[in-house]
Request: fold
Amino acid sequence: MKKVEKISAAENYAAATIGNFDQLSEHLFVIAPDVEVPGKVFVGEPLQSTGAEVSFTVVPAGAGGDFLHIHKTNEELYIVLKGEGEFQVDGNHFPISEGSVVRVSPDGKRAWKNTGNTPLTMICIQSKSGSLQGLGITDGVVLEDKTDW
Amino acid sequence: MKKVEKISAAENYAAATIGNFDQLSEHLFVIAPDVEVPGKVFVGEPLQSTGAEVSFTVVPAGAGGDFLHIHKTNEELYIVLKGEGEFQVDGNHFPISEGSVVRVSPDGKRAWKNTGNTPLTMICIQSKSGSLQGLGITDGVVLEDKTDW
Reply:
């Protein structure tokens, strides 16, 4: 079973690695002693995230789509890294593949499945719906300090 | 110049695609008429995100590291998709590669550069620091409804 490995950390940051994406299926997300999800890993706890929870998921060929879910307070963003799949929200179906990004509001009834012959690899981002104050680069501040490399 | 293309949208979701990651350099982020960043694309506006802003970045071999930046209110999470690089926060340096994830608090003075011979491709997630109410699967609610495929 693969683990998230620490890279570096200090007051204002934490860095870790989940390993190469083709090894994602070696991760095992343990929900309960008898409920384990292979190919799923959350990084919020190892990174001590406070604004967003990120998880990586790999869905084997022919798998997925078993259940619908909604959220209490979080918006979700899905990013497809590899593979081909179908996504549904509130009964609307659409295809997903590398570079697809999907935003789902808390109430959206969502599910996805792998429709291809290779693993479907996705990133899922949870963040509190309505919490963001500005899009794009409006929140960033470029510093005059020189970078030391 | 490549654009974000709409896939599907309705009340509770929006889906779009940035295209394959090897075409990321064809995107052009226009900050001002004379300030353009190739290989950078934000998806918050096309997806109407309200909890997190996601951007994709490709840094060519030999590039990056020109400036440090901080944030006003947002935590950032960086996910490395491809390539090799070096990241720094508050003067602490560490290597990044496929599967690396980095959380940076608003005050962290951050920069990164490509140290390899291939493009360094990253996802950057901005979300409001301290806004998340629960990590992992605590916010999700699995429904009894059957999925229709």
Summary: Chain A touches chain B through 89 residues (CB under 8 Å). Residues 5-128 of chain A form a domain with the Jelly Rolls fold (CATH 2.60.120.10). The two ends of chain A are 36 Å apart (CA to CA). Chain A has one domain: 5-128.
